[in-house]
Amino acid sequence: MDAMWLEQPMFGFGADSLNPHGERPLEAIGGMKKRELRDEVTRVCPSVPGVYGMLDRKGQLIYVGKSKALRSRLLSYFADSNAQEKGGRIIDNTRAIQWETQPSEFAALLREQQLIRRFTPRWNVQGVPKRQRPVYLCLGRPPAAYFFLASKPPKDCTAIEGPFFGLGRMQKAVDGLNKVFKLRDCSQKQAFHFREQLQLFELDHRPGCLRLELGTCLGPCAAACSRSEYQLHVNAAESFVDGFNDEPITALLETMEQAAANRQYELAGSAKETLKSLQYVHRRLSMLAIARREYTFIYPVAGFDNCGRWYFIHSGEVADVAAAPVSDADYIALKPKLKQWRAAAANPVDRGHGAYPHTLGLVTSWFRKNRQELKRAFAPERANRRFRQQLAKSA
User: Fold this and answer.
1) Mean pLDDT of 322-342
2) CATH 3.40.1440.10 domain span(s) along the chain
3) What would the pLDDT profile of 58-92 be if each residue is shown by its tens digit?
4) CB-based contact 349:292 (threshold 8 Å)
5) Quick one: which of 125, 226, 357, 385 has the most CB atoms within 10 Å?
């Protein structure tokens, strides 16, 4: 690769927190013309799993992708049939390509997600309608928790779930959820006065909006409820996020039917649109809830380069990873980590939301598309038996 590209600040992908082995080798090529780039890809790029990044003439990372066969994927960008598509436009702006091999397709998926979150390359987000960008449904923000959306969920939330797609319908869903559970949706700058708060003088706190009067908010800003009363509604909202409460669906169905019966067709139409949004959220929450309840195990993934990994999936998230043991010495060294995994798996209170909560959707989708992979998973307490079986097969 030309030396000019090696001097660019975006050269390289940085550390991989889900790589238990040594740093993966990085390859890079450069060229001023598409033909030069294509010839270099043909000459040196391997047909193995990995991630790749496109750099523009300023050396800025403009796109990140993954593939289970890097060479074929990169060559597809140069196909005539792709010229007018997004891939063709990306390669028109590309002056260098770098790639990092990964031991498996699953590892490549995780690394791609990590890199997009880290760098947010413009071609991964620009040209993608906001309605298709992932957002997280969050319940939190003291002193009066409420539903809101975030592209990167805060750490201090009562409940977080996602990702969800469709910004418009998610905004409708959030609006509907706050109304059904009577939670506030005002700014954090709003002053809050709960009923039990002692006042030197009797004050008449006015609500910051009309929702208290309309009966769609408990009014924590106007001392219309106590903290404990408000918390009961937050608890009910949390059960909805956990996939165990369909109260909003039922409430909106009743509103829609009553409005239609009263010939309030505009209200009925609005309730119907909100209902569609909430039904989407509820379906996805139910799917993610299944993953949280059932997906706690060790997922062994072989590597094409003998860099196999054991992923500890906890409550549907990738919680930790270790190099797959291939000898007694490896297994002995892994025992302390396995003890931690067993303790985490045995804790009935811990529902996940660990270091990598954003992996829940990826894990859920992976096993939905690759159901047979679940047969290879095993509980942490069976690690020794599975290791011995694998050792016997390779002997």
Assistant:
1) 97
2) 3-128
3) 899 999 999 999 999 999 999 988 877 888 999 99
4) no
5) 357
pLDDT at residue 1, as a whole number? 44
| Confidence label for 131 from pLDDT (cuts 50, 70 and 90) | low
Q: What are phi and psi of 209, to 5 degrees?
A: -155, -175
Q: What is the pLDDT of residues 248-300, one digit of tens each?
A: 898 889 888 998 899 888 888 888 888 898 999 999 998 888 999 999 999 99
Residue by residue, what is the 3-state secondary structure of the chain? CCHHHHCCCCCCCCCCCCCCCCCCCEEEEECCCHHHHHHHHHHHCCCCCEEEEEECCCCCEEEEEEECCHHHHHHHCCCHHHCCCHHHHHHHCCCEEEEEECCCHHHHHHHHHHHHHHHCCHHHHCCCCHHHCEEEEEEECCCCCEEEEECCCCCCCCEEEEEEECHHHHHHHHHHHHHHCCCCCCCCCCCCCCCCCCCCCCCCCCCCCCHHHHCCCCCCCCCCCCHHHHHHHHHHHHHHHCCCCCHHHHHHHHHHHHHHHCCCHHHHHHHHHHHHHHHHHHHHHHHHHHHHHHCCEEEEECCCCCCCEEEEEECCEEEEEEECCCCHHHHHHHHHHHHHHHHHHHCCCCCCCCCCCCHHHHHHHHHHHCHHHHHHCECHHHHHHHHHHHHHHHC
* Angle, vertex CA 246, rays to CA 241 and CA 249, nearest 5: 115
Helices 265-294 and 227-241: crossing angle in degrees, nearest 10, is: 70
Distance CA 19, CA 50 (A): 13
- Give the pLDDT score at 274: 86
List residues bridging with 65 in a β-sheet. 52
| Highest averaged pLDDT of the listed ranges 9-13, 43-47, 390-394 | 43-47
CATH of 3-128, one of 1.10.510.10, 3.30.1490.20, 3.40.1440.10, 3.20.20.140: 3.40.1440.10
Which residues have C-beta within 8 Å of that of residue 327, sequence separation ≥ 6?
none
